[in-house]
């Protein structure tokens, strides 16, 4: 069975601090795909990144970076120099080649960035 | 290009009433999904479709039915609404490209209250 665990329910930081959101996954699929989504207070779900299991290269996009570690089944998300606009709920999600495209979501981490 | 749209945005039902939620996408995506989001539980898959005329059960299908008569539309029906179905419902679609699963694009959500 597939599972995604986001152990941090809520995180509160002060603006300009760095913050890391943890994501640990379980899957039996050989090929799988990991995603991060952002849900700001307005409620929509915004896609941030997709990582394929066969590509372990870490990625940086501006203040955002992702650390994919197959050995520890983790796909952590770091925001550098956080801003108030980063306040949102962040979801990690997983699917695999044997899942018919079904995404399994973690429970989400609510990030609050205070000025 | 509107992406994924959902109708209606809000709805209040009485227990036992029925309704249909409409999802439409204009991206020619094969896959479509219906999720529900409840506080502290992330997003849970209700039903999904891998193509026109096909549907399959997700994690929490009881009390819901779906239909995909046209590739661009995915309907979610509640035959006899119950208070436990009070939730925010999200529709999503994705493209299967070269047997690799791509990110899902989400609609804005429908907030449903069942009294």
Summed up, what is this model?
By secondary structure, chain A is mainly β.
Structure notes:
The complex is a heterodimer of chains A (115) and B (115). Chain A is mostly beta strands and 115 residues long. Chain A is 0% helix and 53% strand. The termini of chain A are far apart. By secondary structure, chain B is mostly beta strands. Chain B is built from no helices and 13 strands. The N and C termini of chain B lie far apart (36 Å). The chains are: A mainly beta (115), B mainly beta (115). Chain A binds chain B through residues 9, 33, 35, 37, 43-45, 47, 50, 52, 91, 95, 97, 100-108, and chain B through 31, 33, 40-45, 48, 50, 56, 58, 88, 90, 92, 94, 96, 99-106, 108-109.
- Helical content class of chain B: under 10%
Into which percent range does the helicity of residues of chain A fall? under 10%
Shape of chain B: globular
Radius of gyration of chain B: 14 Å
Number of helices, where a helix is a run of at least 4 consecutive DSSP H or I residues of chain B = 0
Run of helices and strands of chain B: EEEEEEEEEEEEE
How is the biggest beta sheet of chain B arranged?
A: 7 strands, mixed
Low-confidence stretches of chain B: none
Secondary structure class of chain B reads mainly beta
Distance between the termini of chain B: 36 Å
Q: In percent terms, what proportion of residues of chain A is strand?
A: over 45%
Determine the strand fraction of chain B and express it as a percent band. Answer: over 45%
Tally of contiguous helical segments of chain A: 0
Mean pLDDT of chain B: 92
Specify the oligomeric state: heterodimer
Gyration radius over CA of chain A: 14 Å
Number of strands of chain B: 13
SSE class of chain A: mainly beta
Main traits of this protein?
heterodimer, A: mainly beta, 6-stranded mixed sheet, 4-stranded antiparallel sheet, 12 strands, B: 7-stranded mixed sheet
């Amino acid at each position: 069975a597939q599972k995604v665990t986001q152990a941090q329910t809520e995180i509160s930081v002060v603006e300009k601090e760095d913050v890391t959101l943890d994501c640990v996954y379980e899957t039996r699929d050989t090929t799988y795909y990991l995603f991060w989504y952002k849900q700001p207070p307005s409620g929509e779900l915004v896609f941030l990144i997709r990582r394929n299991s066969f590509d372990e290269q870490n990625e940086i996009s501006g203040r955002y970076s992702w650390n994919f570690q197959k050995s520890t089944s983790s796909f952590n998300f770091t925001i550098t120099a956080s801003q108030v606009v980063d306040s949102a709920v962040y979801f990690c999600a997983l699917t695999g080649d044997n899942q018919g495209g079904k995404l399994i979501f973690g429970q989400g981490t609510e990030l609050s960035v205070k000025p | 290009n509107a992406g994924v749209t959902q109708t209606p945005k809000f709805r209040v039902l009485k227990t036992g009433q029925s309704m249909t939620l409409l999802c439409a996408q204009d991206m020619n995506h094969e896959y479509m999904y219906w999720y529900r989001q409840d506080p502290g539980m992330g997003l849970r898959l209700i039903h999904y479709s891998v193509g026109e005329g096909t549907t399959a059960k997700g994690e929490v299908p009881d009390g819901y039915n779906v239909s995909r008569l046209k590739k661009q539309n995915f309907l979610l029906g509640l035959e006899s609404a119950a208070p436990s179905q009070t939730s925010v419902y999200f529709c999503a679609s994705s493209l299967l490209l070269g047997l690799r699963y791509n990110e899902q694009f989400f609609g804005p959500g429908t907030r449903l209250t069942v009294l």
